[in-house]
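Worked problem 6 (solution included).
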Amino acid sequence: MNERFCRLCGMVLTLLLCCVASLSGCGGGQQEPPPPIGDFAISVSPGTTSVIVGNTTPTVLISINPQNGFAGSVGVALLGLPKGVSAMPAASFSIDAGASETVTFAVADSAAVGPSTITIQGTSGTLSHNTTLSLTAEASVRTYQSGSMLYLESGTATDTARVGLDTDWGGSIVEVSLNGSNFVNRHDTGREVQPSYRDGDNLNYNPTLAGDGIDQGTPTIAYAVNSDSLYIKAQPLQWLANAYGGVLGNPIPGDVLVEQTVTAAIDEPHTFRVHIKATHLGSDLHTNTGQEFPAVYTNRNYGRFVSYKGNTAWTDAAVTETQLPDLGQPNPPYYVPERWAALVDAQNQGLAVYVPSVNPWFIGFAAIDNTTPDQGGPTDNATNYFAPLGNLTIGPGFVFEGDFYVIAGDYQVARQIIYRLHDNLTIPVIFAPFEATDQPATGATVSGTTPVTGWAFADMAIVVKVEILVDSATDGTASYGDPRPDVAGADPDSPVNVGFHYSLNTAKYSNGPHRIYVRVTDSSGNIAIAPSVSSNFSN
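Solution. The predicted structure is:
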């Protein structure tokens, strides 16, 4: 009885298992998987659009692409519309599966200039998907002339930045203003925002775009006020006119021709691009040194020097604020790896300057004159100054082209603009390498085979050749790559192996005074000829 009962139970259990297996697709053949659940994807084309404030963008196409038989309707919402921007149709609407909707955006003339991201959200029941559209409100630009002044305005109906160039002062920038407040000091022809050129051997050499040290303005050779840009051409005067025989009424032109073109960066607020082309008109040599590109002078109230000075550039790390030392006080160079700095007031308002290609060393000081009661305006003597220093050797056939950007207003906003510029610019290596000659010492008497040593490195490039010249003629190529930890310790951008050495046979030359030069070439073709070492050969 028990045995029969057990067999019966086993038959029932087997039958149940077969039924379960049949239902699950086991044993009785492979069962088809359940049909996929319908879904959709949302897309926008193009993914970017832009328009000048006060206008309407071109159309963008928002599409619902059904997947797996989806046949529903999708509610679309446009999220994160900037203030002053409206969508047509409205910011929410429906699109059927497989259909599209054209959308435009009206940007008010008071809307903020700059990029923004609009999230396009599609929802159907429990299904939800997003895509994004990049919208840039571009500045309205106006140019005009008033007397000797050329103006370029960029902004909106309620927020306008302006650059002003003075044709009586070589077209130098005498105004960078925001809503009527000018940050630039123009007390004399040595101030402004302007390039200024120097010679590593000759301290008297200093062509300055605005004019000379006795306030004689550089004549403007040509200028143009175009619909979206300002252009000037001028031959800067030697700042130290008396060193070249100049006096009041007899200014001395330098040997550099400057062409300057100013445009608005219309996709960023309060931002102007300044393009400089400098051409050496002479056949002489002005050895390597840091050039002011540009010199930047602000009014007294804008005396907080703000920049990033650490070793992790482009990470939004905390900036450093410095009260600039008075003129005549010790003024070590500032290491500025993000290649921008600003002079601002207590409300963070002022002038920022970004030079994408310049070497990361800036200098600065303040000159405060308390002898007169009014010390806050553009023509008053009190001022603050900084200059990015770009190494250049100005020799025969020298032609240099480079850009810097001036940004008016809050330095924190300016920094974010600079980050976007940095991310989107192709940045050429246009400045010459760093270098120094250690041996022989200037004025030394040398004989026989004498060592020529020093160091050199290129910012954002590689040194490919170091040559030794005697009286401008090449003697030979130095060995490069000696360890110089002292240089790397002083300059965070320097590799360790940047030293060079060379054995110079002075017996090949006549006895008497000679000049030894070091010529450094980097991988971008930039050449630095170090300041000469005067030596007396005695064999």
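Discussion: Residues 1-29 have pLDDT under 50 and may be disordered.
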